[in-house]
Amino acid sequence: MSAAVTLERQIRPIYEALDTGSNKSAIVSCNKLLKKYSSNLLVKACFSLKALALVRSQKVEESLALCDEVLAVKPLDDATISAMMHVLKGLGRITDMVNMFEEAYKQQPLNEEYGAQTFFAHVRTANWKSAQQVSTRMHKQFQDDRYLYWSVMGAILQASDPSTTPSMKMLLYKLAHRLVTSSPTPSYLTADRFHMHINILKELELYDEANTLLESDIGKSICSTSLACDQTRREIWRGRGLFKDEGQSAQQKILNGDRNWLEFLSVLDSIFAPVSSRPEGGITEESKNECLENISKARTFLAGVVEKDGTKNRAAPLALLELEHRAYKFGLSDDSVFVSVMEDYFTQFGDKACCFEDLTSFLDLETASLDRWKAFLTQHQPSFASVGDLQRLINVRKLERYILLDSEITVESETARGLKYLNEYLGGLALGADLPVTELQPADDLVLLAANALVMVWALNRSEEALYRAATVLEYGLTKSRMSFQMRIMLVRIYRILGASSLALEHYRQMNVKQVQNDTLSHLVLTRALTFSLAAIGDLTYPSECLESSQIYLASSQETSDFIVRSFTAEKYTQIPDFIDFESRLENSLQRDVVKLEHVRMRLTHEPLNTDIIDMELIELKFMFDRAHHDNRDFLIIPSYQPRCKPTFNEQSLLFGASTGQGWLWCFLKIYIRAFQHASDLDDIVEEKLLVGDRPKKSSDPEVQLPLRERLALRRAEEIAELTSEETQLLDWATALGDWLEPHHNYVRPPPAVVLAEASRQTELKTGFPLRGVDLQAHNGDANGHHKKDEEAPPIKEASGLLTVFFDSMLSRFEHLVESKCSISELLHVATITQEAFILFIIETMRFKSPAVVKIHKLGNLVAQFKDVRLRASCVLKEMSAALIKIGEVEGSVEHRQVFLQACAPVTIKQITHDFVSNVAKSVTDSRKKVLEGVGKGMTKLNAAQS
Amino acid sequence: MSVLRPFMATDMFKFNNINLDVWTETYAISFYLSYLSRWPDLCCVQEAPGGRMMGYILGKAEGSSNEWHGHITAVSVAPEYRRLSLARNMVNRLELVSDDHYKGFFVDLYVRCNNALAINMYEGFGYSVYRRVREYYGTLGVGKGGKDEEDAFDMRKPLSRDPLRRSVRSNGREVVVNASSVS
Which residue numbers delimit the N-acetyltransferase domain (chain B) (predicted)? Predict the structure, then answer.
């Protein structure tokens, strides 16, 4: 029996166990085999499989030891290598994976599989240069065209990397061009190769060569079925300034039935080419006349298409609109012609939902024309005879509202408009009375309009009454259109402002957000969710919401690179750049880290504060601080029908008026990284040793290259602008606290050797092996805990007055809010930020809790000063907590519900009954009571635990 | 007015207005990526000039010998852009690519038997029922929709490679097969 067969037979049960997820039995089988055999091949394979089983059962440390052992002997057999690939992927040690394959391929240059795997490993690490080199080598060796195209793609990807200089970029494209033309088979064999080829020609502006390819029969045929190739072709045509040719061919396509808007744009661009391609002032009479002639021809052409399509397709009528709009903008016709076309368009398509969106981009009119347009809209007689009539009315209302002037927007007028929209909504409901419950009512947009107007009232007078009304009408709308996500989104925003956070969360969950939508939509409920978190009293709703919404990042971080690899294998190159973009946007998502930080903030309110949490979170937060973030949050999904002279509904309804963007994230990372760094014994040397996987790719932003210490001290106005005034105070306070204690932390912190020795001891206890790669002697020997610093102890300074003043100022702000009966969410915000300061104080002073430390380093005077701060903080927390609980009680009372009901009297009309409003009032007040009491009790609990 | 362009991975960040609609499923990221990495030319998007997504179609090419065909996996249009022939445009595109590029014999799709609106629409596009697939959408028990809710019609439309229309039949509604016998 050959060695390979023996190996196969012995190892199969381990594979099976791994496949079925029985990691334990896989480990047992490995151990058995390892005892029995000493054959080198088998042992290595066994080791690597055991390492895999260990990784999968979360025993990272043990797996690491095995991993190192296997890697050290530079494995060459398939079984070991493929198992190791999974282990290293699981551990995030992609760099080790690259090295392993590189070594294997070097040893066996005829092994095609190892070559491909080396290429893929470089692709996974976005190391395009090496990927390109490996594939070039493979092409020479194996003479397969595919590898040539891999290397072309490698060069292109390297060229598009943000770190590549423009001159290098051109060189790389030239290299790509040389490679592609050296191919023994023409690129047009597949659309994807062809696409790559013409893109290179586009970048190098080799238009003649591109022309030959594109004008060939096969080139034309590819462009007719590949939208991607056609897109590049269009860009090349534009680059060559062939507007006229492109316009003519687009006209032909339109005549043949193509209704892609891009074709119409090509026609329009060709019409205006004589005037648009010249610099301002350079327009001659001649070019003007040419353009006028074009316009008149185009009118006839488009009118023909309009007639043919009727109301079935709106592309041609819209093109006509765009034509007249451009003519007006270039001063080639007056805007009354244009307004007439708009009126025609509305008459034709006013019964389509998209009519409003179609027309808004054209409303940049002169006053006289705007007045004419307004008059046209005002003339409209509302009718509820059919769904089409209703839609027409909705469009009129939206369009009228969109162009309202600032002077027309007052509390009274908006209240009146809100009620008008509501009345029309209630009237329009009859048209959808027979629809199944899963359908949306045709009148829905009217209730959205009503809510918009009511929120505007709130934006003007800040009286919660208007928000109660908005919530009520939307809740009513939902009883008719259960599936309306627009209503739910608006309610989420309104309820958060009102402090009815459990209702906001409920509506969000009803939207059934899943998969990648977590990244784009979780901001709706998780932004500043600490304000409403009841984690301190053990209710983990919000922390678990954070964890659930973050699942998507863990799942997809490997997946996307797997698909990039697959695209290479299948030679579907067109998608690769976008896959890479997608991967990076998800991996470096701003929302991902905002949620993570929010989770840390909540976690600290309910878990005992210890160095384990702090060390772990410190490393993660530092990773976040090195990323170049992408903001994938979807705000466009939030419906807004506010007038164009006012902020959108999204802007108006942001909790505390500020979004948590990059600036917010940076400020809070600075607060927490600094506090954790102080409390932790991990310095850079120790962290490097304890780190398991590769470090994430660092952003190329110059600021990120600065030393961490400097970065943490940086304060930028535009970043601070994203903070609320309480958050800004917290930042200042944390800075003062950190500045005061930092010298003492640095002095007292044990040296790396001691920390590493301890870590090594812990690892040995767990795994039987000491820590890898740690030479304790090298770190200056004495690792038994006694150490003496050479430098002198830093002098003990007086605490900054700010440290206690902060708590006083927060309390007075809180009391002021209570007196002015201000929004409950703001009240909670002040309270939770104060609580956060208290927690940060505990973290910063943890190191000095041990009497031994205080005694050895003579820190008695320092520690004595803590008492004042802590006492003040504790008192303030107590007061706030008591006040919140009291307000919560009042909130839950029948009298308070009456206030809500009275406020809603104007919207308690027709079908919206008193009982219905009463139920809304109850759920809002109950929800607020719950969060007020919960946060209040949480503060008491936290205070007691730390005192 | 809508731009027809290829579906891209980053569209997943902006398809909420389509996917929050109750009838549109949001799949795992790997689902979209696997389509895009294999049949990028059968997946496209209709987009408003402002960049807002209006609808999309995901398709694939599958089957062997004379069953080689294009398949419409998902076609969805945001509620505010319905009744504008967007679905028709996208289906046309998929048929064109299945015909000219993949050289398929037909294009097919599955639809719930009780979704009369969609069935009518597809019939208008030239599709006809080829067979009824029992419990294609899983066993729902005897609910309000009954059998029609859990069964699917497999609807087909022949392409130019099938001039004799062998891939369709007139009595398709009566031909019932089990879900396990279809791909």
Answer: 2-160
- Its pTM stands at 0.92
Chosen from B13, B26, B100 to mutate, greatest number of chain A CBs within 10 A: B13
Strands B106-112 and B69-77: parallel
Least confidently predicted of A530-534, B95-99, B176-180: B176-180
Long-range CB contacts for residues A100-104, cutoff 8 Å, separation at least 24 = A100/A71, A100/A74, A100/A75, A103/A74, A104/A74, A104/A75, A104/A76
Distance from CA of B81 to the nearest CA of A (A): 6
| Residue where a domain stops, chosen among B54, B80, B104 | B104
**pLDDT at site A528:** 96
* ipTM of the predicted assembly exceeds 0.90: yes
Is A920:A472 a contact under the CB 8 Å cutoff?
Answer: yes
Q: Give the residue from A833, A829, A834 showing the smallest Cα distance to A869.
A: A834
User: Closest chain B residue to A566 measured between Cα atoms?
Assistant: B37
Domain match, B133 and B166 both: yes
Reported as a pLDDT band with limits 50, 70 and 90, residue A158 is very high
CB atoms within 10 A of CB A407: 8
Alpha carbons A462 and A472: distance in angstroms, whole number:
17
Burial class (CB in 10 A: 0-12, 13-18, 19+), A558: middle
In a domain, A161, yes or no: yes
- Which of A188, A189, A222, A225 should one mutate to test binding to chain B, selecting the residue with the greatest count of B CBs within 10 A? A225
Chain B environment of A312 (Cβ under 8 Å): 85
Backbone angles phi, psi at A736, to 5 degrees: -60, -45
Domain hosting A168: range is 3-182
Q: CATH number for the domain including B66?
A: 3.40.630.30
Alpha carbon of A438: minimum distance to chain B alpha carbons (Å): 8
Quick check: A514 and B26 CB within 8 A? yes
Same domain, B11 and B77: yes
Q: Dmax of chain A from CA atoms?
A: 96
Sorting pLDDT into bands at 50, 70 and 90, what band is A781? very low
The count of structural domains within chain B is 2
Q: How confident is the model at residue A36 (pLDDT cuts 50, 70, 90)?
A: confident
Q: Cα distance from A638 to chain B (closest Cα, Å)?
A: 10
Contact B81 A353 (CB under 8 A): yes
Identify from A199, A387, A572, A582 which residue to disrupt to test chain B contact, counting B C-beta atoms within 10 A and taking the largest count: A582
H-helix or E-strand containing A871?
helix A860-891
- Give the CATH number, domain containing residue A19: 1.25.40.1040
Cβ contact (<8 Å) for B21 and A485?
yes
Q: Is B100 on the interface with A (CB under 8 A)?
A: yes
Which burial class, exposed, middle or buried, applies to A939 when counting CB atoms under 10 A from its CB (0-12, 13-18, 19+)?
buried
Q: Would residue A145 be called left, alpha or beta, if left means φ above 0 and alpha means ψ between -120 and 50 degrees? A: alpha
Q: How many angstroms from the chain centroid is the CA of residue A588?
A: 8
Please say whether the beta carbons of A557 and A587 come within 8 A. yes
Q: Which residue has the higher pLDDT, A439 or A493?
A: A493
List b or e across B25-35, with b for residues whose CB sees 16 or more CB atoms inside 10 angstroms: ebbebbebbbb
| Final residue of a structural domain among B48, B75, B104 | B104
Which residues on chain A are in Cβ contact (under 8 Å) with B94?
none
B20: which chain A residues are within 8 Å (Cβ-Cβ)?
485, 511, 513, 517, 637
User: Which one, of A157, A233, A158, A166, lies nearest residue A194 by Cα?
Assistant: A233
Nearest by CB: B12 against A357, A511, A516 = A516
The model's pLDDT over A873-922, given as tens digits with 9 standing for 90+, comes to 999 999 999 999 999 999 989 999 999 999 999 999 999 999 999 999 99
Which residue from B8, B16, B36 is facing A637, i.e. has the nearest CB?
B16
Chain B: closest CA distance from residue A311 (Å): 9
